[in-house]
Structures are given as C-alpha cells and as structure tokens.
Predict the 3D structure of the following.
Amino acid sequence: QVQLVESGGGLVQPGGSLRLSCAASGRTFSNYAMGWFRQAPGKEREFVAAINWSGVNTYYADSLKGRFTISRDNAKNTLYLQMNSLKAEDTAVYYCARRRLSQATVVPAHYDYWGQGTQVIVSS
C-alpha cells in the first residue's frame, strides 16, 4: 500500500517562501518518478514540477521556472518542493504524486498514487 503525506503548507505573504514535503511509504521510493501538482479553486489540477527516480532529471511548468525547486531524498523516502518569491496566484492545494515508472512526465493522468494535498495561501 502506497501512502503519500504532504506537509509544509500554510499562509505566507507575497514574496515569501515555503518548503513542502511529501513523505512516502510502501514500495521502494527510489524506483519511481515523483511529481508536484496544484489545484486552485475553480481550476483544473495543473503540473508544477516532476523528478525522475534518481533526482538527476527535473521538469518544471514554464511559469514556475526559477522560483520553484523540486528535489528528493531517497534515503528518507521524501520529496520536496522549495517555493520562493511566492505570488498570490500560487495559492492552491498542492499534491504530490508517484508514478509506477522511473521516468517523470508532466501529465497528471500518468501518476498512479496521490496524497491528500496541503493548502498554500499567499496573501498579505
């Protein structure tokens, strides 16, 4: 049974930073690609960032490059998302997800397991 538990969300002022974490249990974490997605109220779930099994290859939504950084610690079975220079439009529920394969993609439907999400609110 795969479980993904996100943490680290909260209320932050514009320009601030947050680091999200996703703790994974179940089958060997290091074998699989992971991703972060987000969903704002009234909008579809969108791709944020993804990382392959080893952490060597990373992918980002074009609009987020330079502000967000995805990383993973396979020894700790944990995925991270460092978010800097946050804007009001970054407000959303952030989800981590895992594929059954080692290579990452940007398509939500390619991910098989999802966490419950963590709320991020960027507001003054």
User: Anything to note?
Assistant: The first strand starts at residue 3 and ends at 7. The chain has no helices and eleven strands. The mean pLDDT is 95.
